[in-house]
Amino acid sequence: MEINDRLVPDIGYLIYRKCTPSWEIAENVISFYDITYVVEGRGYYIINGVTHEVKKGDLLCVPRGSLRKAYSSVDELMHLYSANFMLYDMNGELAELPLPLVSHIGIKSDLIGLFRELSNAWVRKEPGYLIKTRGLLLVIIHRLIELILLKKDSASTDYRVKKAISYISENYASNITVKELAEMVGLNPVYFGALFKKETGMLVHQYLAQTRINHAQAMLQNGECNVTEAAERCGYKDLSHFRKQFKMIKGYTPSQCLRA
Q: How far apart are CA 94 and CA 234, in angstroms?
């Protein structure tokens, strides 16, 4: 799935709300995106004439231009985080957020932490808060895309695999083996290899190769070095093997990355 990762949010409103029995959003057409994460209770959002019941653990993403109305269940008052914002691409054009209207993502403590930090930064408005709040909102959007569209939850990754991934990211140019990583986290190599594949979707050698090639791509695109130097810096002793692996992973040759 192609994800637009060149997004810039312009925040208009942020709140953590504990709804009262009389709380409601009057019917109106919104000119912004409304992301609402329900962390307690139950409520009803009427979007373009269709009623959607939302409950604890639901994420609502209302597109701009929608006719919106809402109210809380009197018996189960909602607690929610809500962000209203515009979304632009790097050229300043309005961008779309490809999330469904309602998704059940459950209660994610890390996501609640991000929303809490976002809300606090917005309320305090200390110097630089716009940079901070935009950055936090982008992290939240990434997390939601990961959970809802990519169907993965990096926060639940096994701590031993996280440790191995961290080691690979810092030592990718070294001759890293499955045995070495398994010993580092105290597991049998066969079991560790299976666990790593289960958690990441890739075998260790595939993950290592992708990490090396990604670093090589960045070096070439930034003009830091030539193809031979990039291969050496990323742990390849055989230049032809590097070229072949680069083409297999990226779909084009390393030479095509060089800055003109």
A: 38
Phi-psi group of 170: left, alpha or beta (phi > 0 → left; psi -120 to 50 → alpha; rest → beta): alpha
* Residue 7 confidence (pLDDT): 86
Residues of the chain by 3-state class (helix, strand, coil), percent to 5: 45, 25, 30
CB 4 within 8 A of CB 97: no
**What are 154-196's pLDDT values in tens digits?**
777 889 999 999 999 999 999 999 999 999 999 999 999 999 9
Least Cα distance to 5 among 62, 87, 117, 101 occurs for 87
The pLDDT score that the predictor gives to residue 232 is 94
Q: For residue 95, what pLDDT band results from cuts at 50, 70 and 90?
A: very high
Q: Are 85 and 15 in contact (CB under 8 A)?
A: no
pTM score, whole prediction: 0.76
Three-state SS for 22-58 is CCEEEEEECCCEEEEEEEECEEEEEECCEEEEEECCE
Question: Residue 232 — φ and ψ, nearest 5°?
Answer: -65, -45
Q: Is the Cβ–Cβ distance between 121 and 136 less than 8 Å?
A: yes
DSSP track, 110-128: HHHHHHHHHHHHHHH--TT
